[in-house]
Amino acid sequence: MFMTGQSRSYTQPLDPSIFKQRILTDSSARRLSAVMLTHDEDDDRYWILFCVPAGASTQVDRIQSQLKQLWSFGYDVFAFDYRGFGDSSGTPTEEGLYEDAAAAYAYLSRTQRVPPSRIILAGRSLGSAVAVELATRVDSAGLLLFSPIDSLPSVAQRLYPWAPVRWLARHRFDSASKARTIDVPVVMFYGWPDSYVRRTDARALFADFRGPKLLIETGGGHHFAGFFDHAELYRNLKRFWPARPPSR
Questions:
Q1: Looking at the domain assignment, is residue 246 inside a domain?
Q2: What is the residue range of 227's domain?
Q3: Which of 6, 130, 142, 198 has its CA 20 to 30 A from that of 176?
Q4: Structure pTM?
Q5: Residue 145: inside a domain
Q6: How many CA atoms lie within 13 A of 68 on its CB side?
Q7: What's the rounded Cα separation, in Å, for the pair 78 and 76?
Q8: How many CA atoms lie within 13 A of 48 on its CB side?
Q9: Helix-then-strand count for the chain, H and E
Q10: Counting beta carbons within 10 angstroms of the beta carbon of residue 61, is it exposed (0 to 12), middle (13 to 18) or buried (19 or more)?
Q11: Which CATH number covers residue 192?
Q12: d(CA 200, CA 151)
């Protein structure tokens, strides 16, 4: 399900004029590959901490394009490769991916000294579940979700309705059960047609978040939701998070 081999396909070299490479070390001394996209003229911006989908990494051209798009709106962006993905060492597990996200958050908050109020937790597809879990553990400016899944067993059941996958699934990534505990702002993009999550299921997940929230239903399907219309993406992001936070 993690498709780590695919995370090393469809790759392209990082543009050093935009991407700054970093190496993180988690609590078990694993090395995680990461990238930063920053604006050097000041440090008073929101950061988007981006959790990639299954089968992807910061080496994948589509992910690089999406990170650059977010950066072009005036946000600083930080993304990392889970253990076993891209150039990161280790073997992925559900809890392992959560720990990797926590290590990335710690790097921003401790090493880069970014206040939690300026860190937006973002994720696409499987990465949305990682971002949701992280939101239950740390303080943040909110959640930015692209094609979020409600839970892995639910997605698998929709794909394989003839199999008892709800009982067989070892990994859960259950955002639906966690959404009710989250009250930070949430901006969620659902792209149709989406073969993994039905529109009704996406709306049900969205309804469970408790804080200020915004659901945008757009084109682009599962892989490009939110990035299908760049003007729409920017317009909706700045409703909660203008590229520069308001003066205090």
A1: no
A2: 5-240
A3: 6
A4: 0.93
A5: yes
A6: 14
A7: 7
A8: 33
A9: 9, 8
A10: exposed
A11: 3.40.50.1820
A12: 14
